[in-house]
Design goal:
globular; 13 helices; 5 strands; mainly alpha; two-stranded antiparallel sheet; binds fe (ii) ion; Ribonucleotide Reductase, subunit A
């Protein structure tokens, strides 16, 4: 077995970090644990805490067979601390320390910056669980209910991952940050989560699928950039989190695919040729494509704000220090210093969006966002393929990156989803054509009726192509408590 893949699964906290040999850390984590369970029960999934859910639990870090599937009650889930195997002789791949051995501890000069990165990442993990806590009541199937809970317990585990780093490497400060991560709440006016998109509501399952497609994918990009870190424990932590994250995006991607598929089938069966004939499509009890487009516009624009300002000295400093790299830094063919390089940045100048070269170090947020948008395009292309195959002349699009922004160069810019620049009054007048309206919300809510019969699905979503863990179509993924 390669070094670092052995997981101790016997204690309270499954781990492959040798927790038994580190009593101080073990004590800190065991002290934090009851507060976590309180948080889970009070702010995690509402209801279903006594149901048996068919979940995967990480029990190893081998790419093959790292998870075990079985029925567990969610509060009994074995949240553990798992790091991807160490890379023998790993060296720093970028920035001022490029070529030096990766750090096994935090250099004093970077403590504050690194702590901040961990806290911001850590804060998003429980936030999404809080945002999704009421969705169990309206799940379109037991399959989807199970997937929701799988995502939720793994976001919980990602919180553990960041808390481990804080408690192990940041002493008292880290323990206080770990407490604060349980204190803030999504949408709480007094103690909100740190980033805007994580204080928004996730009111329905269409929002959930778009959140896991768009917002979990931002998480993936951030984790991928942190996986390049010179701080080796952070790199290993993020590399393992990424294996779990893939499933979250799968849930979102296939969720939207199944919605689109169902809508196409229903329109075809009813002889509807115009997918924008919203009244007729809605009369079928499925989600019309223009509504899906407006919900996409909302989730995409909220998520773009998570990348921060296009030009950022914080991002430049984190890169030069070796704390956070670029997406796939190790696959990029350049000097990995970026001192003289430039990068094309989309700017908003005198009412016009224009590309201007900027110092590449300052433009790292922009670059990560570009990589993110390119990935999103792939997903949308898959959905459009299904629409075209069904013979409909309709395309879902990613809105212009300047649309509906609150952060960065385009904050408040009156740009339409198609990139047209409007005046503010015209933008406001068309708001309900761009973003979900109250009527859209009410219609979607009217569809959200739970289906809890094994193998059956709500009428607005197609069944998945395959079961989880190769289970048959009528598998009972969640056994309700009596
Ligand atoms: Fe996560
Ligand atoms: Fe996730």
């Amino acid at each position: 077995m390669p070094a670092g893949t052995q997981v101790d699964y016997d204690g309270l906290i499954p781990n492959n970090i040798g927790l038994n040999a580190d009593p101080a850390l073990r004590r800190a984590l065991e002290t934090w644990h009851p507060g976590y369970i309180d948080w889970w029960k009070g702010s995690g999934p509402a209801g279903f805490q006594d149901s048996l859910v068919y979940l995967r639990t990480a029990i190893g870090v081998d790419p093959e067979g790292w998870a075990r599937f079985g029925f567990v009650k969610m509060p009994d889930y074995r949240w553990g601390i798992l790091l991807a195997p160490a890379v023998e002789g790993r060296r720093i791949g970028f920035g001022a320390h490029k070529g030096e051995p990766a750090w096994q501890d935090v250099p004093g000069e970077y403590r504050a910056a690194l702590r901040r990165l961990l806290v911001i990442q850590g804060d998003t993990e429980p936030a999404s669980v809080e945002q999704q806590r009421h969705l169990g009541a309206t799940a379109p199937s037991l399959y989807d209910l199970r997937n929701l809970f799988q995502v939720n317990v793994e976001e919980g585990r990602h919180l553990w991952a960041m808390v481990y780093l804080l408690q192990k490497y940041f002493g008292r400060d880290g323990r206080e940050e770990a407490e604060d991560l349980l204190r803030r709440r999504s949408g709480d006016p007094d103690a909100p989560r740190m980033l805007g998109a994580f204080n928004e509501a996730t009111p329905d399952w269409l929002s959930f699928f778009l959140f896991t497609f768009f917002t979990d994918r931002d998480g993936k990009m951030q984790l991928a950039a942190l996986a390049q870190s010179a701080f080796d424990p952070l790199s290993r932590t993020c590399r393992f989190m990424l294996t779990e994250e893939a499933h979250h995006m799968f849930v979102g991607d296939t969720g939207i695919q199944r919605i689109v598929q169902r809508t196409l089938e229903a329109m075809r069966a009813a002889g509807i040729d115009d997918p924008t004939d919203t009244d007729r499509v809605r009369a079928l009890g499925v989600i019309d494509l223009p509504t899906l487009q407006r919900k996409m516009n909302l989730h995409f624009s909220l998520t773009l704000d998570l990348f921060g300002n296009e030009l950022s000295s914080n991002a430049a400093n984190a890169y030069t220090a070796g704390l956070k790299g670029r997406y796939r830094e190790d696959k990029i063919d350049d000097d990995h210093l970026l001192r003289d390089a430039t990068y094309p940045v989309l700017r908003w100048r005198d009412g016009v969006a224009a590309i201007e070269p900027a110092p590449a170090l300052s433009a790292l947020n922009m670059r990560l966002r570009d990589d993110y948008v390119a990935e999103c395009e792939h997903g949308v292309a898959r959905w459009n393929k299904a629409i075209a195959a069904a013979g409909y002349d309709f395309r879902l699009i990613l809105p212009h990156v300047g649309f509906n922004r609150r952060i960065g160069a385009f904050a408040g810019a009156p740009i339409a989803p198609d990139g047209a620049v409007l005046d503010t009054a015209a933008w406001q007048a068309r708001r309900d054509a761009f973003l979900p309206s109250a009527a859209d919300g009410a219609y979607i809510e009217s569809l959200m009726r739970p289906v809890a019969v094994p193998g059956q699905y709500a009428p607005w979503i197609a069944p998945p192509r395959a079961g989880i863990d190769n289970k048959p179509g009528d598998f009972e993924y969640v056994r309700m408590a009596e």
